C-alpha cells in the first residue's frame, strides 16, 4: 500500500509553490481507504490533471501583464508621449517579476524590449533605429526594466521560499509531535502516511531492514524499481540518493541502518536534500523508539508468562500436596488398621478420600480452564440452562462438604441463560467452596436468584471472615490470595479468576461485596444475560 494520505485538505499549487489551501477539503484519514470507487492516489492525480502546470499558469499571467502594459503604452504614446510609454513598460516588467519571480522578469524584459523597439520607436513597425541617438534611450529603458523586474522577482522568490520553508517546518513539527506518541512501527507508518502530502507533497515509502532483507512497512503494491532503489541505497550506504524522480535515504539508528525511506517526487517538486535528511532522521528515531518499545513489551510479556508459570507450579505444589497427603493418610490407615477400625471410622476415612478426590478434580478443572482462558479460547458447548436447576445441582454436590453450615435458597425465581453447563456448575462450586472454606460451622450460606431487567442475578452470601475492602476487586485476579492477620485457610487463587473469565465470556459481570449475611461475611454477585421468555 502506498503512503499517499492527506489529512484535512489537498495540497494545491499557487504561483509554482505547493501550499495548503485556505479551506479544507474532505479528509482521508486511513491507509489504503477507498473514496467512492477510486483510490486516494487516483483522486490526487485527477485533481492535478484538472490544474494547469504552474509554469503554464505563470506564462499566462506574464503574457496578460505584458498585453495590458502594451495597450497602455500605445495609448500613452499617443496621449502623453514616448517617455510615459516606456515608464508604463517598466512598471509592467516590475509587476511580472513580482508575480512570477526572476525568470518571469527576464522574459518580460526581453519581450518588452522587442515591443518597445518595434512599436514605440521611430521608425515604427521596424527594428531599425532612425539615428544613433536612439540607442542610448533604448538601452537605458531595457536596463531599467531589467533591474526593476529582477529585483521584484528576487523578492518574490525569497518570499516564496520562506513561505515554503515555514510550511514545511510547521508540518515537520506536527509530525514530530505525532511520532513521539507512536509506540509501534505501524503507528510510525500511519503518522508518516497522514503527513506525507503536508510536508513534501509526495508519496513516501518506508522499507525496514530485517533478517529476511528489506521489507516494506506500508505494504505497497510490489514495485521492482522501488525495491531495487531501496536495495542500492542500502548497499551504497549513501545518505541521500536521487534517481528517476525518486529520492531515497538510509534510515540510520544508533546501532546501524534501520531501513530506507523513498520519496517519490511530483513533476513540479524539487526537494532540498537537507530537508529530506531532517525528515529521514526523524523517521529513523521514531522507528528505533518503536522497535525498543516493542522489544520491551515482548520482554514484559515473557516475564509475565514466566511469572504465571512460577505461580502455577507453586499452586500445584501446594494445593495438590494437601489433598494427596490426606488421601494417602486415609488410605494407609484403612490398609494398616483395617481390622481395628469400626464401621463409622472406616466410613469417615473413605468419605475423606472421596472429598479430597473431588477437591483434586476441581483443582485440575480450574487449572485447565484457567489455561484455556489465558490462551484466549472461547466457550464451547453453549446451551440453554435453567439457573434454578444449575444452582440446585451445585448445592446438592457441595452440601457434603458444608458440614454444619446450612445452605439456604431464597425465592422461587428462575431464568434461562445461554452458557456451558459444566463451566457454569464449576463457577457455582468455586464460589460455594469459598463460602464454606472461609466461614465457621453453624454459620449460614444464602443463595438468592433474582431477575433484574434483562439479567439473571445469582447472589451467594456467607457470614464468614469477609474480604478487606481493598481486596474486593483483586480477589478475581489469578493466584491472588487475601492477606489476613488471623489464621485462615488458603485457596489456590484460581476459583474466582475462573468465575470471572466464564461470566465475562458469556457477557455477564461478577463482583464481590461486603457484608454478606448480617454484618459479616461476603457476597459474590453474578449477573448473566437472561434469555427472554419468548425465546428471541
UniProtKB/TrEMBL annotation:
<dbReference type="Pfam" id="PF13493">
    <property type="entry name" value="DUF4118"/>
</dbReference>
<keyword id="KW-0472">Membrane</keyword>
<dbReference type="GO" id="GO:0000155">
    <property type="term" value="F:phosphorelay sensor kinase activity"/>
</dbReference>
<keyword id="KW-0418">Kinase</keyword>
<dbReference type="InterPro" id="IPR025201">
    <property type="entry name" value="KdpD_TM"/>
</dbReference>
<feature type="transmembrane region" description="Helical">
    <location>
        <begin position="135"/>
        <end position="155"/>
    </location>
</feature>
<keyword id="KW-0902">Two-component regulatory system</keyword>
<keyword id="KW-0812">Transmembrane</keyword>
<keyword id="KW-0547">Nucleotide-binding</keyword>
<dbReference type="GO" id="GO:0005886">
    <property type="term" value="C:plasma membrane"/>
</dbReference>
<dbReference type="InterPro" id="IPR029016">
    <property type="entry name" value="GAF-like_dom_sf"/>
</dbReference>
<dbReference type="InterPro" id="IPR005467">
    <property type="entry name" value="His_kinase_dom"/>
</dbReference>
<dbReference type="Pfam" id="PF02518">
    <property type="entry name" value="HATPase_c"/>
</dbReference>
<dbReference type="InterPro" id="IPR004358">
    <property type="entry name" value="Sig_transdc_His_kin-like_C"/>
</dbReference>
<feature type="domain" description="Histidine kinase">
    <location>
        <begin position="315"/>
        <end position="532"/>
    </location>
</feature>
<dbReference type="InterPro" id="IPR052023">
    <property type="entry name" value="Histidine_kinase_KdpD"/>
</dbReference>
<keyword id="KW-0597">Phosphoprotein</keyword>
<protein>
    <recommendedName>
        <fullName>histidine kinase</fullName>
        <ecNumber>2.7.13.3</ecNumber>
    </recommendedName>
</protein>
<keyword id="KW-0808">Transferase</keyword>
<feature type="transmembrane region" description="Helical">
    <location>
        <begin position="83"/>
        <end position="115"/>
    </location>
</feature>
<dbReference type="InterPro" id="IPR038318">
    <property type="entry name" value="KdpD_sf"/>
</dbReference>
<dbReference type="Pfam" id="PF00512">
    <property type="entry name" value="HisKA"/>
</dbReference>
<dbReference type="InterPro" id="IPR036097">
    <property type="entry name" value="HisK_dim/P_sf"/>
</dbReference>
<dbReference type="InterPro" id="IPR003594">
    <property type="entry name" value="HATPase_dom"/>
</dbReference>
<keyword id="KW-0067">ATP-binding</keyword>
<keyword id="KW-1133">Transmembrane helix</keyword>
<dbReference type="InterPro" id="IPR036890">
    <property type="entry name" value="HATPase_C_sf"/>
</dbReference>
<dbReference type="GO" id="GO:0005524">
    <property type="term" value="F:ATP binding"/>
</dbReference>
<dbReference type="InterPro" id="IPR003661">
    <property type="entry name" value="HisK_dim/P_dom"/>
</dbReference>
Amino acid at each position: 500500500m502506498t503512503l499517499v494520505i492527506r489529512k484535512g485538505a489537498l495540497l494545491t499549487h499557487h504561483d509554482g509553490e505547493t501550499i495548503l489551501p485556505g479551506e479544507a477539503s474532505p479528509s482521508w484519514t486511513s491507509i489504503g481507504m477507498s473514496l467512492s470507487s477510486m483510490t486516494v492516489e487516483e483522486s490526487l492525480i485527477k485533481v492535478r490533471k484538472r490544474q494547469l502546470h504552474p509554469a503554464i499558469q505563470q506564462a499566462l499571467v506574464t503574457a496578460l501583464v505584458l498585453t495590458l502594459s502594451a495597450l497602455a503604452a500605445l495609448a500613452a504614446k499617443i496621449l502623453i508621449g514616448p517617455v510615459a510609454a516606456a515608464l508604463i513598460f517598466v512598471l509592467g516588467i516590475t509587476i511580472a517579476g513580482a508575480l512570477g519571480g526572476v525568470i518571469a522578469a527576464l522574459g518580460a524584459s526581453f519581450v518588452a524590449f522587442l515591443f518597445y523597439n518595434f512599436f514605440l520607436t521611430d521608425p515604427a513597425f521596424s527594428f531599425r533605429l532612425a539615428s544613433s541617438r536612439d540607442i542610448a534611450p533604448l538601452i537605458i529603458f531595457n536596463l531599467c526594466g531589467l533591474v526593476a523586474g529582477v529585483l521584484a522577482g528576487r523578492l518574490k522568490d525569497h518570499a516564496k521560499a520562506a513561505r515554503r520553508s515555514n510550511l514545511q517546518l510547521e508540518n515537520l513539527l506536527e509530525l514530530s509531535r505525532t511520532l513521539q506518541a507512536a509506540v509501534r512501527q505501524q503507528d510510525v507508518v500511519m503518522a508518516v502516511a497522514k503527513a506525507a502530502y503536508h510536508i513534501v507533497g509526495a508519496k513516501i515509502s518506508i522499507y525496514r531492514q530485517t533478517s529476511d532483507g528489506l521489507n516494506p512497512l506500508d505494504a505497497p503494491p510490489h514495485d521492482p524499481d522501488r525495491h531495487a532503489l531501496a536495495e542500492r541505497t542500502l548497499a551504497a550506504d549513501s545518505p541521500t540518493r536521487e534517481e528517476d524522480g525518486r529520492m531515497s535515504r538510509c534510515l540510520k539508528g544508533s546501532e546501524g541502518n534501520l531501513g530506507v525511506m523513498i520519496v517519490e517526487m511530483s513533476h513540479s517538486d524539487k526537494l532540498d536534500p537537507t530537508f529530506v535528511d531532517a525528515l529521514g532522521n526523524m523517521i529513523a528515531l521514531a522507528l528505533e523508539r518503536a522497535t525498543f518499545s516493542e522489544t520491551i513489551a515482548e520482554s514484559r510479556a515473557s516475564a509475565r508468562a514466566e511469572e504465571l508459570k512460577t505461580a502455577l507450579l507453586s499452586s500445584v505444589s501446594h494445593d495438590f500436596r494437601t489433598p494427596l497427603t490426606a488421601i494417602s493418610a486415609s488410605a494407609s490407615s484403612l490398609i494398616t488398621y483395617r481390622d481395628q477400625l469400626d464401621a463409622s471410622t472406616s466410613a469417615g476415612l473413605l468419605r475423606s478420600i472421596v472429598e479430597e478426590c473431588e477437591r483434586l478434580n476441581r483443582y485440575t478443572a480450574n487449572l485447565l480452564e484457567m489455561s484455556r482462558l489465558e490462551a484466549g479460547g472461547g466457550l464451547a458447548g453453549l446451551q440453554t440452562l435453567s439457573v434454578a436447576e444449575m444452582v440446585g445441582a451445585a448445592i446438592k454436590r457441595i452440601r457434603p462438604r458444608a458440614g454444619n453450615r446450612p445452605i439456604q435458597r431464597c425465592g422461587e425465581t428462575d431464568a434461562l441463560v445461554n452458557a456451558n453447563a459444566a463451566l457454569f456448575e464449576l463457577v457455582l462450586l468455586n464460589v460455594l467452596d469459598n463460602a464454606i472454606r472461609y466461614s465457621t460451622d453453624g454459620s449460614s450460606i444464602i443463595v438468592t436468584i433474582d431477575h433484574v431487567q434483562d439479567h439473571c442475578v445469582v447472589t451467594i452470601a456467607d457470614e464468614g471472615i469477609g474480604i478487606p475492602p481493598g481486596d474486593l476487586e483483586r480477589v478475581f485476579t489469578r493466584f491472588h490470595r487475601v492477606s489476613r492477620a488471623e489464621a485462615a485457610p488458603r485457596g489456590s487463587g484460581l476459583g474466582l479468576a475462573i468465575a470471572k473469565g466464564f461470566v465475562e465470556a458469556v457477557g455477564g459481570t461478577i463482583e464481590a461485596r461486603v457484608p454478606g449475611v448480617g454484618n459479616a461475611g461476603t457476597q459474590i454477585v453474578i449477573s448473566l444475560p437472561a434469555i427472554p421468555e419468548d425465546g428471541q
